[in-house]
UniProtKB/TrEMBL annotation:
Main location: mitochondrion
EC number: 1.1.2.4
One GO term describing the cellular component: mitochondrion
Family: Belongs to the FAD-binding oxidoreductase/transferase type 4 family.
Protein name as it appears in the record: Probable D-lactate dehydrogenase, mitochondrial
Lineage: Eukaryota, Metazoa, Spiralia, Lophotrochozoa, Mollusca
Amino acid sequence: MYLSKCIRFCLQQTARTVSKESPLWKRYSTAAVQPKIDTSFVGALKTIVGDANVSTADAIREQHGHDESHHAVAMPDVVVFAESVDHVSKVSKLCNDTKVPLIPFGSGTGLEGGVNALQGGVCLDVTKMDQIVQVNAEDFDCTVQPGVMRLGLNNYLRDTGLWFPIDPGADASVCGMCATSASGTNAVKYGTMRENVLNLQVVLPDGRVIDTAGRGRRTKKTSAGYNLTNLFLGSEGTLGTITEATVRLYGIPEKTISAVCHFNEVSEAVDTVVQILQCGIPMAKLEFLDDSAIDCFNRFCKYDMTVAHSLFLEFHGPAYGLEDQFQSVKELIEMNNGFGLKQASDADERNRLWKARHEMVWACTARIPGSKPYSTDVCVPITNLPEIITKTKQMVVEADVIGPMVGHVGDGNFHIFFPCDHSDTETFKKIKDISHKMAVMAMELNGTCTGEHGIGIGKRDLLVAEVGEETLGAMKQIKETFDPNNIMNPGKVFF
Ligand SMILES: Cc1cc2c(cc1C)N(C[C@H](O)[C@H](O)[C@H](O)COP(=O)(O)OP(=O)(O)OC[C@H]1O[C@@H](n3cnc4c(N)ncnc43)[C@H](O)[C@@H]1O)c1[nH]c(=O)[nH]c(=O)c1N2
Ligand SMILES: CCCCC(=O)C(=O)O
Ligand SMILES: [Mn+2]
């Protein structure tokens, strides 16, 4: 009853653009920021980080005013490249004292408009802080600065026999992945960022530097006080700037088996997934692509993969026993009328088998030249997957829009990738409508409107429907405590 009240509220709100004058803004935003960016402010920034690390050039501001999503570019007034924690601290304090918005920038691969400078201000680019501070190979952890990218980290780690498995597809910064609580294809086995971060160093808006678990702490377990680490995971730059992350590492699996198979019915594929999980088979990846996704891929890469609903699977482990796991899954696939099962262990073969999954975003946007991805990102308890996937697919077919479905179904999480061209207003309206209905359906099925991309700009209305007014109020209190002047990435997560 309560949920449906919230959903009605949220349906009313998304129908219009929320401006600073609206009651919603006043209700859910802290003090609005008054940017005071003039030559003396820019001069003060230059004094802190050096002339070469401050840019007001249009091209640089444009580059920092958007991510990979469809959201309209919103440029910051100035871009600052920090080279040290001291830089971050002093720039934060200056912005706080002068009430200028401050937007941390990782690598701009986000999908919810997280770095778009809705109210102008300073974009704080931390990519120059790119040191791997420490690797504790025998403890399976390492500490990185915010400019360290996940692929760079894994290249560096290769000789140690370890890897950092969280894989959002894009080569994102590890601290940006903390900020959005990212996950991706490996979460079935290794969890999301929430399960893999041991400690964070954060610069608060007033310039204070804190370590969420205490300086140097890197234990797998702790019961010491509030879990500030988890508070900052998924905070999307709205509470502070993450300047160091200590993350968990894993042994590179001795053997990997990849597999792909097809189904005529969505329900057969999803039932197979649920049964694999119920049997406790420790899958590394369990992904679903529908027929429309495979069709996009074939067109984009000139492949001739079977155009059918497909499961992409991966097994990681010691060579001993992995083949048995594969055989058990094979039986389940056959029981559910799956066909065309292919498997590979060799790295090149495996990459070829999985190519459709990895090319998906670009294969999809290629269908409409100049389009950008509009991603939906719902996640539900695994037993509710068949219902929401089937209903979503029906909506996409009925609306007659291009909307391939790709799911991290092993986690109950899936996306429709809509190639989005804002000038086609009719299609855009249909996309928004389906996206909204998917989120509402997910919430009705005890799920969430975002499993991994975050709230950003696009899902602010949905947050209140998801968590309820009281919980949203508690979140706002936390925001006000850390950031009383609302300088940190204003207009994100909350209005
Ligand atoms: C092709 C493709 C495919 C995928 C994805 C993207 C793309 C382009 N993503 C989304 C994306 O990769 C993910 O959101 C990253 O975690 C963003 O990291 P960036 O470093 O790019 O942060 P980016 O610079 O885009 O910033 C994202 C948000 O975090 C904040 N932020 C960044 N660095 C910060 C810091 N140091 N301190 C505080 N705040 C900071 C920003 O202010 C912003 O709000 C994804 N994701 C996923 O989870 N699963 C997936 O499957 C995919 N798949
Ligand atoms: C529309 C982009 C969604 C990217 C993503 O999350 C994935 O490929 O899993
Ligand atoms: Mn994803």
